[in-house]
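Summary for the steering committee. The consortium agreed at its last meeting that each partner would contribute one worked example illustrating the joint modelling workflow. Our contribution is presented below. We chose a case with several input lines so that the handling of multiple components could be demonstrated. No manual editing was applied between input and output; the record is shown as generated.
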Amino acid sequence: MHEMSLAKSMYEIIEETARKNNAKQVKSVQVELGVLSHAEPDALTFAFEVVTHGTIAEGARFDIIRLSGKAWCMVCARTVPLPKLGAPCPDCNGYQLAVTQGDEMRIASIEII
Amino acid sequence: MCSTCGCGEGNLHIDGVSPHEHPHTHQHDHEHEHDGCHHTHPHEHMHSHSHHHEHTRDSAHIDPAPRMVEVERDLLERNDAVARENRQWFRDHALFALNLVSSPGAGKTTLLVHTIEALKNECQCVVIEGDQQTQNDAERIRATGIPAVQINTGKGCHLDARMVQQAMNNLPPLNQGLLFIENVGNLVCPAAFDLGEAHKVVVLSVTEGTDKPQKYPDMFHEANIMLINKIDLLPYVDFDVEQAIAYAQQVNPNIKVIRISAVIGDGMDEWLNWLKENANEARKVRDDDVHALRRRIAELEARLNP
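What follows is the complete predicted structure of the assembly.
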C-alpha cells in the first residue's frame, strides 16, 4: 500500500509547515487529489490517521479536494473530460489523449492553532 | 518516523545490510522531529533531533485562533527531488537507466539475465534488484559476471528514489553503460515513484490476462515501453496480443511495444538494439555536457587571464 509512503511524505511537509508557523496543533489538512492520481482517497485517509498518531497533527480533519480529470484530445484539438485512464474522448471516441489535469497529489493548505 | 531516509519502515536492507546499522553516508537536513515515533535508533545519526513543538506548546501567549496556511506542495516532492539527483547522476556518468516493472512472475529477471549475457561484452551493465525478501535475484544476475545490488524492501511494496540512491553506493565506479533497476513485482505501487530512470519498462507476459493494461492503467500510462514477454507460449495460452496492445494504447497512445521471448530469443534483437542505441545516446549526451563544461572553463580562464 503505497498510500502509507505518501502519507509519510505528507506528514513531513505538514510538520515542517506547522513548525515554521509556530503551530501548537494542526486542526485540518486540505489535500488536492486528482481522480487520475496514484492514490485512493480512503487508503490515504486511513494512512494519514496512522501516520499522524501521536503527532502535532493527531486528530486533524483530513479534507480531500477531488480534482477532475482532463485531457487534450489530439484529434479534436481541444480539452475534454477524462473520468479515468483508458476512457475515450467523449467526442471522437478515440484514445489520442494527453492528460492535462487530474494527476495531482498536493497539500493545498493546513489549518493550525 | 525518520521519513527523510525512510527508516520508519525498519525493514529496508541493501545487500543484506540495513542502511541504519551504520552511520548515514548521505547528507540531508534532519530538522524533523521524532515525536510520536515508537521505534528506537540504535545507530549513530549525524544530526541532532529538534523538538520545536515542545517549546511552542508551553508558550501560552500564542494566539489560539485557528488560521489557514497555504502550502501548495506535492506529496512526492522529496522523492521527486532525489529522483532528479539520480537522473543527473546517471546523465553525468553516461548511464542509460531503466526501471523494470511488472506483476510478479512476468519474467523480468530472466529477461535481464539473457539481456546481460548478450550485451556484457559490448557495454557495461549493472543491476539494482528490488524484492521484499531474499538475495535470489541479485545472485542470478551476479552469476552472469556483472555487479548487482539487492534491495530488500521488507514490507515495502515499491522502490523509491532514496533506496536507489543508497544502492548506487554499493556498485563499483560506473562510467557509461546500462543500469537496470528491477522493481518489486507489483503493477500498482511502483507507478507513483520516479527513481530517476530514463524510462519505465513494463513487462507483460502472455500467461497473464489480455486486459492487464485496462485493470492496471496507471502503470501502463507511466511506462514508455511495453515488452510482451513469453511469446513462445502463445500457442498454449488464451492471450490476444493485438488486443493487449490496443488496451495499452488506450491508456498510453505513445507506448512502444516489443514482443519478446527472453528464453527462446524472439524479439531480443529489437530489444537489444534499442538498448544499445540509447546507451550510445547517453554517452553522446554526457560527452556534449563535458565539451560544454570545457568550453565554459576555457571562457572563464580567458577572462581571468586577459
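Chain A touches chain B through 49 residues (CB under 8 Å). Residues 3-68+102-112 of chain A form a domain with the hypothetical protein PF0899 fold fold (CATH 3.30.2320.50).
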